[in-house]
Design brief:
With 140 residues, this protein is α+β, with helices and mostly antiparallel strands. It has a domain of 92 residues: Sandwich (Immunoglobulin-like). The chain is built from three helices and eleven strands. The strands form three sheets. Strands 1, 2, 5, 9 and 10 form a five-stranded mixed sheet that branches. A four-stranded antiparallel sheet has the order 4-3-6-8, with no helix packed on it. A hairpin with a 2-residue loop joins strand 1 and strand 2. It is globular and about 60 Å long. The N terminus is likely disordered.
Length: 140
């Protein structure tokens, strides 16, 4: 019984120690030599859950990588081949942001562009996306 209490106490300390360390590690975004990373902000602050798209045509085939921002608007596009990339933001309720040029190893902060209306926002998603949201009623 005593050993079990000791293990529970030690595991509690380990979790507490990890939680104490986590904020400092989470705050810092480390962009490596093959990555592009940064923060996406909008008029109301960090933009969570938006897509950040990196695209290049400098490779033998068109290359595109898409990631999603975290709850603090941070993103990291990892393991990019050496090239110059067009990087922009896309998301629900937004229109595509202006494309910014960047290369691997760079930090790039981006601005999200809110759509002026629902019609403008709808232009950025293919018909298949809207069709997938359609719920057809049962035969009954």
């Amino acid at each position: 019984m005593r050993t079990r209490r000791l293990l529970v106490a030690l595991s509690g300390l380990s979790v507490a120690a990890l939680l104490a360390m986590a904020p400092s590690r989470v705050r810092q975004l480390e962009v490596g030599p093959n990555d592009i990373g940064g923060t996406v902000t909008g008029p109301k602050g960090p933009e969570a859950g938006v897509w950040v798209i990196a695209e290049t045509r400098e490779l033998p085939t068109k290359f595109v990588r898409i990631v999603v921002t975290d709850d603090q608007g941070r993103y990291l596009i990892p393991d990019l081949p050496k090239a110059t990339y067009d990087v922009w933001v896309r998301g629900y309720g937004l229109v595509d942001s202006p494309k910014s040029k960047s290369a691997a190893g760079k930090t790039l902060d981006l601005k999200a562009t809110p759509a002026p209306n629902a019609r403008a926002a709808a232009q950025y998603y293919p018909a298949g996306y809207w069709l997938s949201m359609l719920k057809v009623p049962d035969k009954s």
